Amino acid sequence: MEKGASEASAPCARCGKPAQLQCPKCAELKLPRENAAFCTQDCFRAAWSSHKSVHPKPGALASQQSPEGWKYCLRKGRGRALQLPRFEWTGPLRPYPISKMRVVPDEIEKPDWALDGIPKIEPDSDLQKRVEIAREVLDAAARVIKPGITTDEIDRVVHEETIARGGYPSPLNYHFFPKSCCTSVNEVICHGIPDARKLEDGDIVNVDVTVYYKGVHGDLNETYFVGNVDEASKQLVRCTYECLEKAIAIVKPGVRFREVGEIINRHASMSGLSVVKSYCGHGIGELFHCAPNIPHYSRNKAVGIMKAGQTFTIEPMINAGVWNDRLWPDDWTAVTTDGKRSAQFEHTLLVTDTGCEVLTARLPSSPDVFPWLKP
Ligand code: MF3
Ligand code: CO
Ligand code: CO
Fold first, then answer.
1. Which residues of the chain have pLDDT under 50?
2. What's the 316 CA to ligand 2 centre distance in angstroms?
3. What pLDDT shows up at residue 9?
4. Which among 121, 276, 316, 365 has most CB atoms closer than 10 A?
5. Which domains does the chain have, with CATH numbers?
6. What are phi and psi for residue 112, nearest 5 degrees?
7. What number does the ligand 1 atom closest to the CA of 289 have?
8. Distance CA 12, CA 201 (A)
9. Which atom of ligand 1 is nearest to 177's Cα?
10. For residue 84, what pLDDT is reported?
């Protein structure tokens, strides 16, 4: 660590305060000053584990400095004649020399691989970790559910567990939603507002948690039994759980988003249940809700096909009676029009090359609240 030699010093790369110190390694390698300046030794030390990745690895520079195209395909053989490597060429086309790597001016902001060819902050590398805290928060809520507790107390647990982990409860003030999670009891389909009502023996309650943490939203929900619940409600909740499982099972690159609704409708209607149409799964990530829109009902007109790297939710709402919904005068609480019960489960998914990763999957520590999951 040394004092910067020059006059116009960049701000501290960690905290943005005025900086006079410069990373010695960056100076030696003549790397851009804006990533190399630090205000104090402490800031430099704190930034080191992430900062050191800006120093190109030995050998990386060499390949960057001889960027003629041969290395990709053509080799200089003996007598300096160009030789093609052995390969079963599939058509008449052959590779030709590739010209030198073109230059991008210094003042243009560059992605992290521009210098040494190595992408360091792979966009989704720790997505699982970042979304997992939403699961931990939901599990904490699940543990306090019992007859007599109010949905407001569930909301308090969600709020406190979220901020204790350094997250923001995404619903809070989202389009003026007044609470930190949604709690949807019995005939409430979704977006129920936590309030002073005590849960009663025999209720079912969905808790929907979304946490904004390190720049991304993770969204999941589950429907829980309060005390002893009637057989029809058990069937409804289990079938809804299975609808989500079956939908997740078809997720992979190339599948049409509109297929999700076919799978869910098939399973729900088999049990004489109906699928809500007004609320859909959604793209999620840096935004809470974005494209694609993913209906859960059949013969939907969802646009697009799944691609690796996409993140979205599937969150079927299944009704014991008719599919139709109505809004309470609070403009949030969606209820079934016939007053019969509704259940929901939701996961945030990441499409991979071969299928998908359930970013909000249950953890070994998740409470054992669903009898069909017991070993
Ligand atoms: N978590 C819900 C979803 O699954 C959205 C809740 S928005 C709120 O999309 F404002 F009601 F919180
Ligand atoms: Co959602
Ligand atoms: Co949700």
1. 1-7, 59-67, 69
2. 10
3. 66
4. 316
5. 2-54 (no CATH), 122-373 (3.90.230.10)
6. -70, -15
7. 9
8. 57
9. 10
10. 77
